[in-house]
Amino acid sequence: MFNFLNHQMRRSRFLLYAAAIVMSACTEQLVSTDVAVEQGEISVSLVSQDGHQVVVPLSKSVVDTPDANAFEIEIFNSSGVRLYRDSYENTVGKKILLNAGDYRLLAQYGDSLGVGFDVTYFAADQNFTVHGQTSEEVNAVAKMANVKVAVNFGENLRTYYPEHFARVKHPELSDYLQFEKDETRAGYIPAEDLVLEIHVTDEGKQKYWAAPAITCAPNDFVTFNVDIDPRTGDITAGITIDDTVDLVEKEITIPADAASQDAPAITMSGFDDSRTFNFVEGVEYSGVQSDFVVMGGIAQCRLDIKSDYLVALGLPAQVDLVNADESVKKQFEDAGIRWNSGMAGKRIASLDFSGLGRKLSYDPENVFSATFTVTVTDENGKEAASEEYVLKQVPPVFSLSAAEGNAFARRIEGVTADVTSGNPALLTLEYSTDNSSWTAVPANSVSGTTINYSTFSGLVPETDYYLRTKYNGNDNLVSEVVTLRTETAAQIGNSGFEEWQSQVYEFNVASFWNNKSVTWYQPWGTDKWWDVNSRKAFHSYSALTAAQNLRSFPTVAWSDDAFDGKSAHIFTANTGTASTADVTYADDTTVGELFIGTADDSGNHSSDGHDFPSRPSALSFKYKYSPVSEDAFYVKVEIKAADGSVIVSKEIPDGPAASSWSDYRINLEYQDMSRKAASIFISFKSSSAADSSAGYAKNSVVEAAGGDYTGHFGSSLRIDDLQMIYE
């Protein structure tokens, strides 16, 4: 140990180790001097930290930075004599009396010669000066003073030598760091010229290679990246050193001929348990190959292949890959089989079949199939031969999912396909009206093996459309044809509100028993689609004879104020048996409603909806709206399936004001393509508020059926020209 430390002292960066020698040679007593010499006093402050930077993305062990109290503190004078030694715990806060002059503070933790995965050595070496008649603090930072080491094993090394480990050695020490093949921790070793050894097991024999020594300094973090160069077979060790200031990278190579020249080895990858590689057109494969490790250098690599397909292309049944003509090599490459150029003398090479899927189109009348063996001979005459392997092209497997629910009146959407075997990106959807001339539909998205196709629109209602999928543009790879019929582009009955029925409601005046009546209106002709809630605003008697509009008045009527012809006028009315021009009751307010369905004798819904066979993209209409207070009009559209389940529902509670005829559109989106439409329900209300909270104005005027009437009326909504939009 003394010789080793003496050697370290010759280099300035290892000044810490010199202190260890001085420490062992001195007493532990404070050396006193003549009292006439000026004196000062000091206190010591110590901080410990790990200065290593992580320079590789590995999960390495982390050793906790030691607590400052665990350090040993020593003070030396300029002659190297130790004047003080104690733990930091006993030193901190203490006033140490020293003569004026130059001194050195040494703080240490751990074993400076330790080797292991949890053996760390921290030290601080601080020069300071004491001035007479002063009290000063000496600050020191302790950092790791040995070398941190990690080893990464590369994929090629793991493949060719599954059993392996590495050792990092110090030339002066018997201990060493050993990194097993699955070791992820970092180890610690004293600084000096370190040597990396790679140990492998090859066919039961133990072999190792030693890299040239590298010089490391205290507080370095050294990472050895060890692998095999696939071009030459050489062992490479890329070394990254993090010295917390500069990043130093070194590359060393251990020639492959340092290893014994064993017989060639052949490894097959990408084949199944029956030694078969089934490939599909258009699929990008990788790693389907024969790999050769020939430590004696490749002299011959013979491919023997039986294939009627390749014979038809004019390719030989046997070829020496080392000496093959470029024209023959090009023919094999065109078929998807390739190998390294300049293979002669190389120690590592491969024969790659990954391109078969990319190069060959599937033809059921001429399916590619081949049986082959590979024989490799090295320059020493040693030989290795593979077993028989099979290459076989199979068709892709895919299916089309298209049902009646995917066909709307003018579009088809929601069609999907699934590719069980093959490349989903190569499967195209096509449609036709004559089952002969086809139009392609692009994919909207691909999720795993499922392709979602874009909506294709501009179609003709009540028309048969033929759908199929085609793989990679290959006419030999087409799915069964699915036929979908587009829906009719149905419209709502009386959608322009030109047809109306007049009804008369009779009631009595309570005090005189005089019969009274009010005319009201229902929007239908021969086919009844719509109804109204006007009967909710009618009362069976009136307490007074005059101003009967205050006691009973409809909430819906036709209007000459229309976008075209007549419109439906929906308004809020406040009516009551005892209402007067000045007296009203909030509970007697009725929000006008026009809806598809039927109403009972009290104006309540007795049924909702009407038969309807289509799924429109949107509902559009013309409207005018004069709200009272902060009212907004209300619309609801709902389409149901035959079983009564809702296919789509859309509510608009905030219809805006419009003093002139304006357009309004309600888009309808269908999430479930499995259900067809059977009925439709639409409701228009003059206010989104409840009856009792809807606004109205006393003694206001409403236009109904061409006449003006005075009563207590609220918000006014006119609707015209309803259209179901099909896109």
Commentary on this structure:
With 727 residues, the chain is mainly beta. The chain is built from seven helices and 54 strands. The strands form eleven sheets. Strands 3-2-5-6-7-1-4 form a seven-stranded mixed β-sheet. Strands 40, 45, 46, 47, 49, 50 and 52 form a seven-stranded antiparallel β-sheet that branches. Strand 49 and strand 50 form a beta hairpin. The longest helix has 11 residues.
Beginning-to-end CA distance, first to last residue: 90 Å
Spatial shape? flat
How many domains, as an integer? Answer: 5
CATH superfamily of the largest domain: BT2081, beta-jelly-roll domain
Q: Give me the count of strands.
A: 54
Helical content stands at: under 10%
CATH level 1 class label of the largest domain: Mainly Beta
For the record, the CATH architecture of the largest domain stands as Sandwich
Supply Rg. 47 Å
Contiguous uncertain segments of 5+ residues: 1-36, 51-62
The major beta sheet can be summarized as: 7 strands, mixed
CATH topology of the largest domain: Jelly Rolls
The number of helical segments is: 7
Structural class: mainly beta
| Mean of all residue-level pLDDT scores | 86
Largest sheet strand order: 3-2-5-6-7-1-4
Per DSSP, what share of the residues sits in E-state strands of 2 or more residues?
over 45%
